[in-house]
Design goal:
This protein has 182 residues and is an all-alpha fold. Helix content is 64%, strand content 0%. The protein has helices at residues 18-28, 33-38, 42-56, 62-76, 79-91, 97-104, 111-125, 132-140, 145-168. The longest helix is centred in the last third of the chain and has 24 residues, at 145-168. The chain starts with 17 loop residues before the first helix and ends in a 14-residue tail after the last helix.
């Protein structure tokens, strides 16, 4: 059970959030619970959608974005986001099971992507206070400055959704995946 209201439909969400949820439904075919619970604050929903949309047009490809999301969700222990990004990673970004497992462990089977994931993990673990060596390593892997900024932004965006879903106990509406490692 959620800790705050989860609008049961677009029509029961705050009026200012309704057009935003309609756009999500048009884009995804449904309105996942993350969007419905965030709709309690139309400003927060607009901010999330705006940053997410802007970053989708950025330099990082869908595979790298999903890899970052998986690593961040694992560190933050967000079962909702792990379920969502395992689903998206598999069905949209076309990551295989071994890659998803590697991403959840903070690595990648792809050498360049591995540097991005390791940098994202350092950002989360160090709360942004990464070392000169961390920045040098991501540059040495071939990432441009714009891509480095986008990795930081993706970590922030995913941390937002991790915290929203964990703090508010958002019901998982994707095939369940546990953050707990066996």
């Amino acid at each position: 059970m959620t800790r705050i209201a989860l609008p049961s439909s677009i029509e029961t969400a705050p009026t200012a959030a309704q057009p935003l949820l309609e756009a999500v439904k048009k884009m995804l075919g449904s309105v996942p619970n993350l969007f419905r619970i965030t709709a309690n604050s139309p400003a927060a929903l607009e901010g999330y959608l705006g940053l997410n949309g802007a970053l989708a047009k950025g330099s990082l490809d869908a595979k790298t974005r999903e890899r970052i999301a998986l690593a961040v969700a694992q560190i933050n222990g967000c079962d909702y986001c792990l379920a969502a990004h395992t689903y998206l990673g598999t069905n949209v970004a076309k990551l295989d099971e071994a890659e998803i497992s590697a991403n959840r462990a903070g690595t990648s089977q792809d050498a360049k992507a591995d540097a991005a994931i390791r940098f994202a993990v350092a950002l989360v673990n160090e709360r942004g206070h990464v070392s000169d060596g961390d920045v040098s390593a991501i540059k040495a892997a071939g990432y441009a400055e714009a891509e480095i900024v986008e990795i930081v932004a993706h970590v922030a965006l995913n941390t937002l959704t991790n915290y929203l879903n964990s703090a508010l106990d958002t019901p998982i509406d994707f095939p369940a995946v546990s953050a707990k490692v066996a």
